[in-house]
Amino acid sequence: MKNIIQGKWDEILMSVKITHDITDVSFRTWLAPLKVYDVEDNLITILSNPDLGKDGVSFISKKYGIPIKVAIEEITGKNYEISIVLPDEAKEISKKENSNQGNSAQKNKYPFLNPRYTFDTFVVGTNNNLAHAASLAVAESPAEVYNPLFIYGGVGLGKTHLMHSIAHFILEHNPSSKVLYVTSETFTNELIDAIRNRSENSSTAEFREKYRNIDVLLIDDIQFIIGKESTQEEFFHTFNTLHESKKQIIISSDKPPKDIETLEERLRSRFEWGLTVDIQSPDYETRMAILKKKEELDGLQIDNEVMKYIATNIKSNIRELEGALTKIVAFSRLEKKDVTVELAEKVLKDLISPNNKKEITVDLIVEMTSEHFNIAQSDLYSTKKSKNISYPRQICMYLSRKLTELSLSDIGKKLGNRDHTTVLHGIDKITKELENDSTLQNTIEVLSKKINPQ
Ligand SMILES: Nc1ncnc2c1ncn2[C@@H]1O[C@H](COP(=O)(O)OP(=O)(O)OP(=O)(O)O)[C@@H](O)[C@H]1O
């Protein structure tokens, strides 16, 4: 049953998105990272993005729990209970189950990895053949061929998929190997926590133990640590320790090291010690092959003309390419219509239209900030003055100034009809705090990236 649910998972999530009119940003933040971990009797255990923490899990469960259950029932015809957990909690559950039941159950062995991201499911084309070959070589002989391996490329082109494939391969061939996959945002947040709690216990030592006592470190989206001095410093030492002890390091980024402006020179040169490979946008044949692979994995049967229509029109982002197929299938089910080119044209019109660049508005900033802090959007527009509301509101003011062209008084008007001096005060306050508060710096950076992924 797990395979069936997994096969239909994208469709289930897409159905929640369409039925509840969830914005792309909210979908990417909360729902898209959810993964099926296990299905037992009538309980589906779902993993959340570890970066969202416990608060994130409780927010997702509260806000999207029932819509997810309804979509599962609609699509599978069966009523399931769901439990959304963090990967660490799932590991604990699976450890307990394994000790109770032996190792008979065939579970996702590595909850921190997406089970679908393996070399088997990765389509090799002219756009990624070098990155694929280098990844395979590193997976076969960690720390012997290219160290570090630096993979870069635009959004949604398969960097994470390749990194997980390497991790799966190494763990399958050498289960005792200590493999750690993290995003650089997790690395940064854990470092900030460790530094903050330094005086109370030995958490910095624990942090170092975690990151330095491993065989393979995969660090995704390194661009998030760029510009953060203390994180670069810590990463520099982590890198040196691992490299000197002949441990494999694999890094991904949206740009090659030479184009990352705020990267310290000593890190840049280290990143270039090994091999740097890029992933480009796929050509038409590769896009068709990726769609066919997804059709096969999800057990779908889609008219070839529809596949051609998608592959012709969605060119530069594989996540969008796959998402387009999922969206069409979800739509055809909900509307009880056949999957035809006409249906595809209708469903994909926003995605395909040439002017679909998402505008950054105060409302979008409010939406993302309210989700980040788990407070109601209406509170941010309201006159409420409690700190847990006024602080995120000041962050909205700051981000609105930074990410839009609006004047102070326009921002004030859109943010609950406030005076421009109130907005100026809010922006000044956040600007000053940013000088010394690294958690706030990280929050602003992550929020900015989520609001404007370009
Ligand atoms: N060559 C490929 N074959 C099959 N699927 C692919 C391929 N490349 C990318 N994908 C799929 O496209 C989606 C996006 O890929 P992935 O998350 O790895 O991109 P990314 O480069 O890490 O993006 P980001 O820059 O947003 O972190 C995933 O579902 C992945 O499985």
Automatic annotation (TrEMBL):
Region (Domain I, interacts with DnaA modulators): 1-98
InterPro entries in alphabetical order: AAA+_ATPase, Chromosome_initiator_DnaA, Chromosome_initiator_DnaA-like, Chromosome_initiator_DnaA_CS, DnaA_C, DnaA_dom, DnaA_N_sf, P-loop_NTPase
Function: Plays an essential role in the initiation and regulation of chromosomal replication. ATP-DnaA binds to the origin of replication (oriC) to initiate formation of the DNA replication initiation complex once per cell cycle. Binds the DnaA box (a 9 base pair repeat at the origin) and separates the double-stranded (ds)DNA. Forms a right-handed helical filament on oriC DNA; dsDNA binds to the exterior of the filament while single-stranded (ss)DNA is stabiized in the filament's interior.
PROSITE patterns (alphabetical): DNAA
Record's subunit section: Oligomerizes as a right-handed, spiral filament on DNA at oriC.
Name listed for the protein in its UniProt record: Chromosomal replication initiator protein DnaA
GO biological process, one term: regulation of DNA replication
Compartments, record wording: Cytoplasm
Native source organism of the sequence: Anaerosporobacter mobilis DSM 15930
Family per record: Belongs to the DnaA family.
Pfam families: Bac_DnaA (PF00308), Bac_DnaA_C (PF08299)
Main localisation: cytoplasm
Signal peptide bounds: none
Binding residues for ATP: G156, G158, K159, T160
Residues in AAA+ ATPase domain copies: 145-278
Domain named Chromosomal replication initiator DnaA C-terminal: residues: 361-430
Taxonomy, superkingdom: Bacteria
Renumbered residue ranges of the record's region Domain IV, binds dsDNA: 333-454
KW Cytoplasm (keyword) present: yes
Free-text note on domains in this protein's UniProt record: Domain I is involved in oligomerization and binding regulators, domain II is flexibile and of varying length in different bacteria, domain III forms the AAA+ region, while domain IV binds dsDNA.
Keywords carried by this UniProt record: ATP-binding, Cytoplasm, DNA replication, DNA-binding, Lipid-binding, Nucleotide-binding
